[in-house]
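Researcher: Here's a chain I'd like modeled. Treat it as a single chain, no partners, no ligands.
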Amino acid sequence: MSRLAPLVLSCLIVAPCVLAQDAPAILSLPELVREAIDRNPEVQMAARAAEAKRARVGQVGALADPMLVFGVINEGHPVPFQTLGERDFSEAYVGISQDLPYPGKRRLRTDAAREEAEAAKSAIEAARRRVAADVAEAYYDLYSVQAAAHIVDESDQLLEQFIKVANTRLAVGQASSQDVLDAEVEVSRLEEKRSQLCQRKAILEARLSRLLFRGDAATFPPPGVVVATALPGKLEDLLKIADEESPVLHEKASVVAQAERKVDLARRDRRPDFSVNFTYHNRGSIDPYYTFGGTVTLPNLHGRQNGAIDESVADLGGARSGADLARADVRYQVTEAYRMAETSERLLRLYDEGILKQSRISLDSAFAEYRVGKVDFLKLVTSWRRLLDYDLTYHEQLAEHEKALARLAVHVGPSPASGR
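Model: Modeled as a single isolated chain. Structure tokens:
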């Protein structure tokens, strides 16, 4: 059993791939997530868009710029000011006018812009969570590859022991050369597996570099020990939380609210707008006079206004349908992630409590019996290969479990790994 101790420990200890041995640091998922959120262009684009929408809120509700009017009227002479003070209709005038929308229109424009800004704010959080989930998935995939590389190394060492025993038994005529040849084939298969793992490790590191926006693909230290995280609650509760907290649904709700304000505004646009003005008329030595006035728009109820209402109502219907579609998608994504995590959790428990223990006992027994000639080499290799496959599958399922929880956190709240 002592010869199998390294293999047993391989299920608990994660070591780097053979191409990156002796890495002094441990890869931290919270640090990766923070770096990605700080540097990822998708998050930065969403943040800039939200900043622009916030700046627009104050603009749309403001009054139009006032207009200054001025001029000269000359009676009987084309040159300005030549008859000022001499003729009744010669004057220099200056005035100001201000457009005034119908009461309530400015408030509705502001409310619509504010809802648009809220949608952009929710889009930032949605982008942050998506990036965090993408980083977490790459991290756990990298963990699975590194763990598999370590398991392959330990299995290679165990296979070397089998070869030594086979050679010893061959030397005394208790085994055939076929045993040694079969063992060498398994060594080659392990080398093939190791090459595949190192290739996948390089691809995952390139993916992490892209998510972190580091430019060229970097080499990362190995992830730390991963322990299965408990499911955060029952599916029904998580679906309720997603309905209330998902930033995707918050964004869609704000879009619907904005469309509702635009419908109200389109209907309010059927009301007339106003303009008021005041003008001072200077006539030189003749008494000045003052004019006060204004304008009123006459909405064309059978033209632009009714068309604008129809357009805004159609946009509102589209926004509501989009919100319904988003809710269905979110509920599906939450359900899918939950079921995958639930299945992986059940399989991990099965491996921990039964399959791995039984496979190790079986391999111990087969190795002991092969040493004394009670079983052939094929049975020993079969037991060894079975344990190898189960060990690899265990870490794959552990990675899938954590990846599913990371996807779940996109809609039901930040995961502990997000460092938030």
